[in-house]
Structure formats: C-alpha cells, structure tokens
C-alpha cells in the first residue's frame, strides 16, 4: 500500500532508499515469493511492472527469462499476487477518465486519495467511495474538500457524524480536539455555496446580553456562536447586509463576509450589555432611513421590549420606508414559549428553539415559500 501511496516523500523516492540501503532480495524474500518480490522491487525502482510470467507467451517467456529460472510455484504466486494486482490497478488509473471504473477500483482495492489522478478529485462519486473506508485522520483532513463539492449528503453525512461522535475511533486515531475544530470550521466556510442568495436586503440584530453565551439545549453550541454562524452565511452570500448589536441601546457592528466565526464572537464578547429591547433594530432603521427587506433578531430567551412593541415597530418602519412587505424574524434560541410576531401578519415569524432545520426555515420564509 505505501509503495503505491507515496512514490516519494520529502524529496526522497523509493529508488533513493534502495540505492542507500542495498537490500538483498534473496535474503529478504522467501524462495517461493522471489518472483513476486522481484516485480515489486522493479516497480519501486523503475515505476512500472513487467508482464507476469504466466501471462507471457512461451516465446516471450524464453526471450525474457529462461523457463528454468523460476519454479511453477513462484510463477503461480506471482500470478495470484494481490500486491501486484494493486500496483497494476494504480498504474492503470494514472490516465483513467471513466469515473465508474475509478469508483470500482477504489472499492475493490481499498484505494486512497493519493492513488488517484488529480482530475478525479472533483468527483462526488469518487469521494463518496473513498469515504466509506477512509481513516479518521484522512477524513478530518478532507472534510472541507468533500463539503465543497457537496459529497456529504444522505448516508455519507451520517458516516462522518458517526465517526466524529465515536469516542473509540477518536481515541484509536489519536485525534486532537484542535484538529477536529479546525476541520469542521474549514468545512463550514466551504459549504457556503449550499446557501443560494435570496437577493434580499438584511438587517441582522444580535442580542449582546451576557446570557447569549449560554448553550442551546442538547448541543455544545452557544446562542452567540449559532447566531454568528447563521449571519456569516448571509454576510458572505448576500449583497446587502448590515449588522447591529442591541440590549437596552443599539450599536452598529462592522461585520463582513471575510470575518471568521471566532472574530465575530470575540467582537460581541467585548460589547457592554443590559436589558433586551427587541424593537430597537426597527426603530433604528426608521430613524436612519435604512432600506431593509428582512429584519432578523437573534436572542436567547430574552424577548423583552420597551415602550414600542416589535411588531408595531415593524409596521411603523414599513409605513415610513415604503417597504410594505418588510419581514421580521425573531429567533429565541433557548426559549420554549414566546410571542412577539403578530399572528395575523404573514410577514412576521417567531422561531422557538434552534436546530439544523432553522436555516431552511429562514430561507423559505424570506423567499415566500412559507
């Protein structure tokens, strides 16, 4: 496997190692394996294979090597060698263009990414075939790539989740938590293409109170982290997005699509906090004559409001801006029960709690599918 997987590492080839080590074939191999080892040594040094002796015509066999040089057992072992089958397959794949044949070879010989031609590494089917028996470290290292080509769907997504949550596998692979965190964050950024733009103008309003650091039930994700992740997708994909932070007052936030999750969270961690007034984003937009199609308010369970109710603030904004179909979404990520939206207004929605269905719910509401 390593002979085919790594033709060279760090500037050293197998040929270099053979030249320095001077291995003695007759001392290293059992007599019956001599011919098989000769072929493998030839591949290590020359990069190709000779035709197997049993597959040569009688005339070619006599020309290449006297028939008496190898025993019938040696030639039988060479003919049935799984190691030589692997080498022949890898050599044949160098110029293979048929995706189905590459997938078949991966499944038959347990090939890995390094065995494959570069042009095949953008194939969803190829990566899904690799993933089925991919070692933990390799999977983590390639999460971003697989996510970027949309290979992690259905059962393949489940394979990744199963491995990442298997304590035994993580322990055996000696995976450091930092490696997992970095790989998942890389995959997150590369998955943005899965969220097509809505071409709406957004105001994202973040509750910056201290309670936003609490965890969402059943997860290890904080309310602040979840709101940062959701907003970053739109900051990256949408043309018009402005962000504000609010508690009992409001501050404009400089977030952009090229920021990272950690940068957004660290920025919000430094902001002062107080009581939560969910009407402030619409009041601010009205005062500043901002033009937004959608207001998204991210909070935990604090849905307090001051003198003006949020739904009234949205109505006032619609009237003053002329954007009569402006929408309001309030996300209470740790709440179990609250009501801010006017149930008679199809342009307002409350989301109670948080799970993986929320991004699709947001998209469908904004685009009028709900």
TrEMBL record:
Residues 1-218 form the TROVE domain. It holds the Pfam family TROVE. GO terms for molecular function: metal ion binding; RNA binding. InterPro entries: TROVE2, TROVE_dom, TROVE_dom_sf, vWA_Ro60, vWFA_dom_sf. The keyword Oxidoreductase does not apply. PANTHER family: 60 KDA RIBONUCLEOPROTEIN SSA/RO (PTHR14202), RNA-BINDING PROTEIN RO60 (PTHR14202:SF0). Belongs to the Ro 60 kDa family. This is TROVE domain-containing protein.
